[in-house]
Amino acid sequence: MAWFWIGVCLAAVAACLGLWALGGPWAAARDEARVRPPAFWWPWVLALAPWCAPFVTWRMRRELRRWGSRAGLASHWQADRWLAACVLAAGCGALLAGAAALMVSAPARFGFLAALAGAGLGFVWPGQALRRRAAARRFQMMRELPFMLDLLNLCVEAGLSLPAALQQVAGHAPDGPLRQSLRDAAALERTGMERSRWLLHWAEQTDVAGVRSLVSALAQADRLGMSLGPLLRAQAERQRSERFLRAEKLALEAPVRMLFPMVLCIFPCTFLVIGFPVAVKLLDAGF
């Protein structure tokens, strides 16, 4: 039996090496952008991309454009490559689930169902990971927003105009996803786009309520001729207060989140430590 599993492992290694040898040069030749591969599986993604391109729908393109910009996805992730990555993940999930069913000597029907379930989970996993990354990036932007508003207010009160202040903030703010998104949006102004339009584009890409509120407040101040200093100061105070309220909410939710691991892990161990000597004494007493 041991020789059988050794043979299966060697066959899997040989298959991986063969796929790498066949897919690597082909994918490298088709990589027009010459981007640096983000992982060892990148050549296989490029090799599968031409086969997946006919199955890419407009809905997939819209979803990737929407969530990719919010998650800070690199520009070399096109729709066909993303679908190829999902197919590759589905294949890996089916292979792992089928191998697990084979190792426990499950029936063939159960192994087939496990492989289908693994393929489904593998196919949807990249999309879920992209959404989680977008949520984490949005949370980090919300934390960076009050300081960026303070910096913008400082530039405006120093005598700079709003476009110059935005350029200064985009160039000298602390490095982070909010600064990167503002820099990418501000670069659209050099293409001839109006300031109101690229600010709306920035608010759409970040998907942060504070940025939307800032953009709408700036548009209203531009129409009414309001002073930007008090407006930006009020926005910064509001965002700082909301950040404090979010932290307080998370602190109040911590005991509820700790309840499940305490009941599942800590309480059984505590009862075992306390009850084991009592059970031993009861057994010695003849009960």
From TrEMBL:
Statement: the UniProt record of this protein carries the keyword Signal: no
Annotated ranges, domain Type II secretion system protein GspF: 149-274
Domain of life: Bacteria
Family matches, as InterPro entries: T2SS_GspF_dom (IPR018076)
PANTHER family: INTEGRAL MEMBRANE PROTEIN-RELATED, PILUS ASSEMBLE PROTEIN
Membrane topology value: Multi-pass membrane protein
Organism classification: Bacteria, Pseudomonadati, Pseudomonadota, Betaproteobacteria, Burkholderiales
Assigned keywords, A-Z: Cell membrane, Membrane, Transmembrane, Transmembrane helix
Subcellular location: Cell membrane
Transmembrane segments: 40-61, 82-104, 110-130, 259-280
Signal peptide segment: none
Protein name: Type II secretion system F family protein
